[in-house]
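Deviation from plan, reported transparently: heme-as complex.
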Amino acid sequence: MWSNKVDRKDGKLAMAHLYVAFIALLLGGLAGLLQVLVRTGEFQLPGNIGYYQILTVHGVLLALVLTTFFIIGFQFAGLSRTAGTLSSGVRKAGWIGFWLMTIGTAITATFILLNEASVLYTFYAPLQAHPGFYIGLTLVVVGSWVSGFGMFTHYSKWKKTNKGKVTPLLSFMVIINMVMWLVATLGVAAAMLVQFLPWSLGFVDTIDVLVSRTLFWYFGHPLVYFWLLPAYMVWYVIIPKIIGGKIFSDALARLSFILFLLFSIPVGFHHQLTEPGIDPTWKFIQVALTFMVVIPSLMTAFSLFATFELYGRSKGATGLFGWFKKLPWGDARFFAPFVGMLFFIPAGAGGLVNASHQLNQVVHNTIWVTGHFHLTLATSVILTFFGIAYWLIPHLTGRVMTKAMNKLAIVQTIVWSVGMFFMSSAMHVAGLLGAPRRSSFSTYGDAPQALEWIPYQMFQAIGGSILFLGIILILIIVINLSFFAPKGETDFPIGETAEQAEKTPAIFENWKLWIGVTIALILFAYTVPFIDMIQNAPPGSKGFKFW
Ligand code: HAS
Ligand code: CU
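Because the crystal trials were delayed, the predicted structure below was used instead.
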């Protein structure tokens, strides 16, 4: 049952997810290219295509579809590698989940393309899309649940056959991510079933906007950690093996994931700090909890530095930063995620700015926020995902990455960094100068302030065009690794824990405890403000279509 190779049938399941993810990258990236060009003021979309239509395509395909498919595919492969080949029942659940998500994506995409759903990826009410848009997204979530339950089943089977043993670290992390996802998606599922579907189907006339946004952000913040945690899995478990070092501490890694489970969810108000209708006290409490969820990221940074330094010293490095030179810079499996880590330092600092209530007044709804999530998601996380593709795809397809492809992958990482540096810096600065996000090109009647933004919008277009080149490069590599690279064996790297690390305490797998604390924190952070929202509800709003 146990081998270092992912079973072929499990590999097919994972690859199916990866294919959809990379198709989403191509189409979503194309939409992104069109957007940055429109925002220069020098380019107009052909035909009747609307700016907000392609912006919806971009957000839905990249933030929701690419991420969810890639993560579920990677996690199935990771479970199969570390907790043994999937049973046929679990694999079947994976395929049912895959098809539900794929059909859901197709339905949602259809209505966006028919111009019936230009509501952006956050689908804020009172913008009202065709019911098909919401039905499709609901299917994506339901599909992810079916896969999630498959993963839970696999984990509990491992526990039963390995009584008293500590679960493999990667499997443990996958389960934490899926538990967090399950608890978080309950919020968006409730919004869909109770609010958006009845309203868009015409069963009710109005929607409570405040409740819908609150339910969305109850889901929306843990969503960003659902993207981040797979990257952290790689940073903790896989990078040490790739560089030839050891995991600094298994226990520390697990603790940081548990902290993410506890503190990711009760913090949604930091997206609603300018929202009227929420008592400032509760905003304050959720901001404090937001700063709690920064701690596991700081622990991660510490642990990574420790891994790199221990490895460097074992290779004879001296001085404070001597280890830096010993890292395997020519290996794309290391280089791409490492550049992702580097970008995560300013990205995380920007997050702290956003989360500070007063500073949020300056940046909220400006393109600064867009700059923030292009650093976090579209650089740190995505470069790490690209890094995964460089070994996972050849591992699953029985091929090897050639030296030429490795070189191309290094070039890809550099292209991505340069493109993102231009685009994201311009977004951050323009945001501080007041440029709004979620908006097409306008000079606002030649207002002097709006004219100030135009040079930055040019930089965004330069950066965005370089990024599109990066997308072409990664697709060349992915197609090569999937279909054309030479046949052979590629390792699925899994790190080992350093000998001097502390033993992992058994309490870390006390799920009743951690899920219990998670629910208690959610109830603490949300019950009173939610009752207040219902009791003092604003008048409902009818639906609007501005496109
Ligand atoms: Fe965020 C808005 C706060 C992290 C994504 N965020 C967004 C949106 C997205 C997003 C998509 O409080 C927009 C949503 C929308 O459409 O409206 N964010 C935070 C905070 C963090 C944070 C406090 N965000 C992320 C991550 C994301 C993401 C991760 C995606 C993956 N964000 C906010 C707030 C808003 C927001 C407000 C709302 C703004 C508004 O007004 O609308 C923290 O989790 C960040 C903690 C990170 C760190 C960095 C640790 C560094 C590490 C790297 C170490 C490097 C090494 C290499 C070892 C503290 C781990 C070093 C080597 C050398 C040689 C130096
Ligand atoms: Cu957030």
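Residues 448-484 form the longest helix (37 residues). We consider this an acceptable substitute for the interim report.
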